[in-house]
Amino acid sequence: MTRTPVNVTVTGAAGQIGYALLFRIASGHLLGADVPVNLRLLEIPQGLKAAEGTAMELDDCAFPLLRGIEITDDANKAFDGANVALLVGARPRTAGMERGDLLSANGGIFKPQGKAINDNAADDIKVLVVGNPANTNALIAQASAPDIPAERFTAMTRLDHNRAISQLAKKTGAAVSDIKRLTIWGNHSATQYPDVFHAEVAGKNAAELVNDEAWLADTFIPTVAKRGAAIIEARGASSAASAANAAIDHVYTWVNGTAEGDWTSMGIPSDGSYGVPEGLISSFPVTVKDGKYEIVQGLEINDFSRARIDASVQELAEERDAVRALGLI
Ligand SMILES: NC(=O)C1=CN([C@@H]2O[C@H](COP(=O)(O)OP(=O)(O)OC[C@H]3O[C@@H](n4cnc5c(N)ncnc54)[C@H](O)[C@@H]3O)[C@@H](O)[C@H]2O)C=CC1
Ligand SMILES: O=C([O-])CC(=O)C(=O)O
C-alpha cells in the first residue's frame, strides 16, 4: 500500500539543530521507516539561502521516503497542511544570557507562528516546540491557536530525559536500555527536576539502588539540569545533534507510542495533575498509545521531589505571568 506523505514543517531549518534534524526526518527516523514525508522549511529571509543549500544536500542523499521539499519565509505557506510542526527557530541562548532575557526576544516569533498553524495546519497537527524557552514558547503558540486542541502543543524535555538516563546508567553501570520510568518534571531550564524515585534500573528501583541522596541532590540533578550550559561552555555553541535526536525521539514516541511498562517525559499542558496549575506547559511522565499521550497517574511524590517540582512549576508560572504582561498570551 502506498502511504500518503506526511507534511512535516521545520522552522529554523538553516540553524544548527535544523542541520542535524532534517536528514534524520528524511531518512525515516521521525515517523517510521515506511512513512514518506514532505518537508516544509521555514526560515527568516537571511536564512533562506543556507536552507536552500541544506535542501540541495537532502536531494543529494536520494532518500526514498523524501517526496518533496519547500522552502519559504512565509509562515502561512510553511504550515499549510502541516501534520507535524517542529518549532526550532528561535533566538538561542548564548554564554552568560539568562532564560528570562529570551522571553521577549522569542515571544514575537511564536505568536505569529501559532496563528499561522491555527489558520493553515491539518486537523491532526502535532506541534513540538524546541526553541527556548520551550515551555513558554509553546504556551504562546498555543494561545494563538484557539481552534486547535491545546494538547497538540508540546515542549521538548526529551533531551533532559535522555541526559538523565545516560547519567544514571553511568552511575549504576547499567546499559541505558535497562533504565525505565525516569521522569523530568517542570520546565526545560535549570529548575527542571529529573526524578529517579520511580525509575527502574534493570527492574530495581533506581533510588534504592543508588541509595545516596547527596549524590542525587548535589551531582545528578545539577548535572542534568545544567547540561545545556555545560555544552555551551565546552562547545562554544548550544547542543545541536543531541537536541535534534531528542526531537526525533519525542515525535516518534508521540506517534508510535511508549513501550509496555515504560514511560517518557514531555512538556504538555497541565490538566492539574500533581498540583501543577492547569494550562501551564510542564513536563510530566507520560505514556502514549494510538498517537495520544496520558499523564501517568498515582505516583507517590515524596518531600524531596515535591519541593523541586514546585520550584520548577513556580518558574513556569512566573514565565506565564511575564508573557501575559507582554500581551503575548
Ligand atoms: N528544548 C531543548 O531541549 C533545546 C532547545 N534548544 C533551542 O533550540 C533553538 C534553536 O537552536 P539552534 O538550532 O542551535 O539555533 P541556531 O541559531 O543555529 O538556529 C536558529 C535558526 O532559526 C532561524 N530563525 C530565527 N527566527 C526564525 C523565525 N521567526 N522563523 C523561522 N526561522 C527562524 C534562524 O535564522 C536560524 O537559522 C534555540 O532556541 C535553542 O536554545 C537547543 C537545545 C535543546
Ligand atoms: O540552553 C540552550 O540554549 C540549549 C538547551 O536548551 C539545552 O542544551 O538544554
UniProtKB/TrEMBL annotation:
The active site is at 188 (proton acceptor). Substrate binds at residues 93, 99, 132, 163. It catalyses: (S)-malate + NAD(+) = oxaloacetate + NADH + H(+). One of its GO terms (molecular function) is L-malate dehydrogenase (NAD+) activity. NAD(+) binds at residues 12-18, 106, 113, 130-132. Residues 157-323 form the Lactate/malate dehydrogenase C-terminal domain. It is an enzyme of class 1 (oxidoreductase). The keyword Nuclease does not apply. Catalyzes the reversible oxidation of malate to oxaloacetate. This is Malate dehydrogenase. It comes from Streptomyces noboritoensis.
